[in-house]
Amino acid sequence: MNRFYWQWRHWPYLEHETCVFKTTLTFVDSVTEIWSPLLSGKKLVIFPTKVTQNVEKFIEYLEKYQIGRVFVVTSLVRNILSFLNLKKGGKKQLQSVKIWECSAETVTKDVLMAFYQYFPPGTVISNFYGSTEMMDVTFESFTCAEDVLNSLSNEKIPIGQISIHL
Length: 166
What we know:
The chain has 166 residues and is α/β, with parallel strands linked by helices. The protein has helices spanning 2-10, 29-39, 49-52, 55-64, 74-86, 109-118, 131-134, 145-151; strands at 18-21, 43-46, 69-72, 99-102, 124-129, 138-142. The protein has a 4-stranded mixed β-sheet with strand order 3-4-5-6. α5 links the parallel β3 and β4. The protein is globular, with a radius of gyration of 16 Å.
C-alpha cells in the first residue's frame, strides 16, 4: 500500500485516465499495474500476449485505448521508438501516454535522448530500480532532455539521489 500511496502522490491519475495491464503475473510490477488503477477507480484494459509481443500491435492498442501511463522495460522503449521513427510525417503517435515507468533493465542516455527527440517536454519517463527485490523503488524521473543531461554521472543515468538530512 505504501508504494501505491507514493505513486498516487507523485503521479496522480487523470480524471478519465485509462490504464493497461500487460505485464506477466510473475513480475512484481504486475501488482502495481493491476491494483493501482483499480484501487483508484480507473479503467484497466488487459492486453493479450499476442499484442505485447508485437511492437506495431502494442502501439496500435495503446493508441486505440488512449492509455495514459505504461510500465515498460528499456528494450521495449527502444523498440517502440525505432518503430515510431520509421513512420515519418503525419500525426505523432502515443501522445496520450504521459507517464512511462521503466524497470528491470538499465535505462541509458541514448534511449532517453531518443525518447525526448520524439516525445514533447512534460512527458515523464522514470528509471525505477529495486521493485523486484522489495516492492519498493529507488527512482529518477525526467520530463525533458535537459533533465537527462543534468542528471548524468559519468555519462550514466542515475537510479536516484541520496538525500541526507542532518
